[in-house]
Specification:
The protein is an alpha+beta fold and about 290 residues long. About 30% of the residues lie in helices and about 25% in strands. It folds into two domains: about 110 residues, Aminotransferase class 4, branched-chain amino acid transferase, N-terminal domain (D-amino Acid Aminotransferase, Chain A, domain 1, 2-Layer Sandwich); about 160 residues, D-amino Acid Aminotransferase, subunit A, domain 2 (D-amino Acid Aminotransferase, Chain A, domain 2). The chain is globular and about 55 Å long. The structure holds 3-[O-phosphonopyridoxyl]--amino-benzoic acid.
């Protein structure tokens, strides 16, 4: 079935939703994006995703000619046009059509695209059994070069990590920063539960400030679990009682083995399971209604 795509203010059939080969998103990865989910007729943390999109755009000096409220409405309209109540939403703002040569001044206006499609959910056994992760050779982008807090269209760092993990036979990649601290997965944030404290790396080590990460930190605190944002090493991960990654797509995914070391009992632990239950309740309770 053909999808309806939002293209700079118009809702058009996907066959008509085309981009110029001179778009700087295509030529240079010059742009920003968000991945958002709707659950049961509500868009989870829509405002937070839009705020992060505008922060990313601000940092790359990309002007978006819509207010954040107009962008929220555009997302809602796109999901409704596709008659979806559960959806995966990809919002992309590129520098727009320009010329050859990287000068963004040659791009008169940005290109805004919103795609809303059916969500492909991971097989349930990944949640019940957990998955293996490996630390990969490629280091996370250095904060002083391309800050991972910017969700830019240049995702090669993450794609290389993904390829390297897959070649090593693991479903998840863990990226270290240039100093060897653990940063995050290819498209997810990491948590470890060790000696009664839930640890997650702070943004300054070089991570995306994940919206699921924030929600999980809040849920854990509500459950009375102490949460610390502090740099963690491979040792902390290998010796943790529980480990999981969080993201819009994966939600909360248990990690049961890292670099051949089993984590805890080698099965998803009780805190991971408890937080997963709470998160699944939260996503259907909260969120911007579609109508
Ligand atoms: N780190 C990175 C590098 C990410 O790309 C996260 C952490 C988790 O952030 P959120 O805000 O989602 O909790 C991400 C998110 C996709 C896709 O299609 C990728 C993400 C989210 C949704 C879809 O690959 N990345």
């Amino acid at each position: 079935m053909s999808r309806i795509i939002y293209m700079n203010g118009d809702l058009v059939p996907e066959e008509e939703a085309t981009i110029s080969v001179f778009d700087h998103g295509f030529l240079y990865g010059d742009g920003v994006f968000e991945g958002i989910r709707a659950y049961d007729g509500r868009i989870f943390r829509l405002k937070e995703h839009i705020d992060r999109l505008y922060e990313s755009a601000h940092c790359i000096m990309l002007d978006i000619p819509l207010t954040p409220e107009e962008m929220e409405q555009a997302v809602i309209d796109t999901v409704n046009a596709n008659e979806l109540s559960d959806a995966y939403i990809r919002l992309v703002v590129s520098r727009g059509k320009g010329d050859l040569g990287l000068n963004p001044k040659n791009c008169p206006g940005c290109q805004i695209v919103i795609i809303a499609g059916k969500i492909t959910i991971f097989p349930e056994e990944r949640y019940t059994e957990g998955i293996e992760a490996v630390t990969v050779p490629t280091r996370r982008n250095v904060v002083g070069a391309l800050d991972p807090r910017i969700k830019s269209l240049n995702y090669l760092n993450n794609i290389l990590a993904h390829i390297e993990a897959a070649r090593a036979g693991a479903r998840e990649a863990l990226l270290l920063n240039s100093e060897g601290y653990v940063t995050e997965g290819a498209a997810d944030n990491i948590f470890v539960y060790r000696r009664g404290i839930l640890w997650t790396p702070p943004v300054y080590v070089g991570i995306l400030e994940g919206i699921t990460r924030e929600a999980v930190m809040r849920l854990a605190r509500e459950e009375g679990i102490p949460v610390e944002e502090s740099p963690i090493t491979r040792h902390d991960v290998y010796t943790s009682d529980e480990c999981f990654v969080t993201g819009t797509a994966a939600e909360i995914m248990p990690i049961v083995e890292v670099d051949g070391r089993s984590i805890g009992t080698g099965k998803p632990g009780p805190l991971t399971q408890q937080l997963t239950r709470r998160y699944r309740e939260l996503v259907v309770e909260e969120g911007a209604p579609l109508s």
